[in-house]
């Protein structure tokens, strides 16, 4: 990946420098590049499907209005070698750290101004209205996994919307608000984005309370509860695979609060 990143920088005539930022399982590598730019390179084996995250950033950049605060995308190109397909994306660099570092699970309470929360609510509302054929969450996934992960029958989603798809404080900057990493942009149940942000924040009760207060149209409606349950189910699936063990009991409690049914956690996860 380092060789691919260096080659992309050379092609784009920028100089990569600064700290390396690695993505999930080494699939992506990002660094500052040139003046005020950020170069991200992603790779996938040639014999594997590219998946929705492959071009999510570019599609979001094209479809979303500029009122949704995010880094501008300046250039994109793809290439292959004998085993992998690569994609380079040169974006605006925002010289501020994310509100959470080291992973998506919130590890400290956040004290953000009311204006930041209002901007987040507005950005999610605007994003929700953007038409796209990209499907980030599918009814088929819900039908396959709800009973096993949540202990309840599958729920037919009646309200779909457009969203970020990976909303947590590691992808949020501010104040002022900037939302980064739009790879998962697409259609999803209403309330999924806010539910995911809330789920990742359950370890910090005051911030979780603030999320619920800031976005009442999600947490106070039946459609929002369904979207939140889908987000909780996705993270419980991550827990099954060994991810975020510190978050698992919080996810289970929140899901039971919404559904009234205890989550059927495996014994090892219920400890």
From TrEMBL:
Pfam families: APH. InterPro entries: Aminoglycoside_PTrfase (IPR002575), Kinase-like_dom_sf (IPR011009). GO terms for molecular function: transferase activity. SUPFAM superfamilies: Protein kinase-like (PK-like). The keyword Lipid biosynthesis does not apply. Keywords: Transferase. Residues 113-208 form the Aminoglycoside phosphotransferase domain. This is Phosphotransferase. It comes from Streptomyces arboris. The lineage of its organism: Bacteria, Bacillati, Actinomycetota, Actinomycetes, Kitasatosporales.
